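pasting for ref
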Amino acid sequence: MALLQARSKALWRELFQTDDAVPESSVAWQPSGSILLATSLAETEQLRKRQAMLGAAGIKAALMDEGQLRAEEPALGDAVESNRSADRKEEV
């Protein structure tokens, strides 16, 4: 799946660079990223596996701790802290 995603992304970029008749704003795809939050240790492990799969396909992905995530997206509010508390409960 990750290879298909990488190829699709490359084709969109190629289309925008080679065809002036297709402005980037005319399609739903936009070159942006995603933030996925883990709400448990099990979900954190799933994200680790996803990161490895994406990395193997040449797609940049990073796992971030609370501080790194807040630096990237300060508007997250209290959602990150409440998820961190849920992880602590699961570890017990």
